[in-house]
């Protein structure tokens, strides 16, 4: 799909990890399609995860009582956000598809990726109540009026059986709900079916190759996929 733009938000410390391989596969397959692919490698960028006053470069609205949401909303409107946030927001604005590639940490994403969400998808840019969920601000960014898509691709430490209804970790849909519905859908993304790689450290090399092949095959037809219904469990 020539002309499509893809942003991959990647959070893993080891390039030779399964997450690194999944990311590389996405870059290769999507680039071969003619897509423009940008990778935000958060660890390599040493992306700052903490939301602080330093994210605002201009004067504060209320320096006596700091409110991060209010201050960053006004800083976005006035062009006074720090450089790293502004650069990431520009990538999001231009992307047709945003892929989040990460290992599952404590039933969620790594802190550095959560920090990216906290600092980049701020009020006024990605949401502005009641402009949320199907009316989220990111829905309006593409001039082509196409949906802005998001896809979570992640690895787990536990097996698929562990993340089943009968498993010790419970049905995987329960941990997906806050990530997909409460974060992505809230901002106006349309959500594609997650790509879950269960327990890659405990499978054979042949199985890992099969996982990457399956991911590549899915990406070949990713633009034909329909968004999933993202509602509470």
From TrEMBL:
GO terms for molecular function: dihydronicotinamide riboside quinone reductase activity; metal ion binding; NAD(P)H dehydrogenase (quinone) activity. The keyword Ribonucleoprotein does not apply. Keywords: Cytoplasm, FAD, Flavoprotein, Metal-binding, Oxidoreductase, Phosphoprotein, Zinc. Its cofactor is Zn(2+); FAD. It catalyses: 1-(beta-D-ribofuranosyl)-1,4-dihydronicotinamide + a quinone + H(+) = beta-nicotinamide D-riboside + a quinol. Transmembrane segments: none annotated. Its main location: cytoplasm. Belongs to the NAD(P)H dehydrogenase (quinone) family. PANTHER family: NAD P H OXIDOREDUCTASE-RELATED, RIBOSYLDIHYDRONICOTINAMIDE DEHYDROGENASE [QUINONE]. This is Ribosyldihydronicotinamide dehydrogenase [quinone]. It comes from Microcaecilia unicolor.
